[in-house]
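Quick one: structure for this chain?
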Amino acid sequence: MLENLENIVGLSKSIELVPDDRMIWDEDDEMAQMHFVSTSGLIKEINYLAGDFLSQYLDEGVISVVTEVEFKHLKSIVIGERLIIGIRISELIANQITFKIIIMKDSDKVAEGIVKRTVVSRNYLRRKAIESI
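Got it. Here's what it folds into:
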């Protein structure tokens, strides 16, 4: 399952992201009017990016799932501001892959974190889903 993954440590990717209204911080009506980007919106984006990046190295019978996230939202971001998200695979232990994440706005670091994804069998997840019905 993971034999072909031993060479992925150190691989990295960066993308440009322009947050839209789906990522708005809406926990407070007044703050929602200011169009700040939510921490949860950023976390969702980095989880998707890490999973999508990793999927190109996985066999069809397996998938990766998020098992841990450490995230620091360091500076405010407003909807529409251009961000660069960088991810790097920093560690592979057994079936767990660790990504280091950094989010930049211009030359300022606005967020950073670690995402751990565990590679599991798709059939295992299917069985678990059926068992819970």
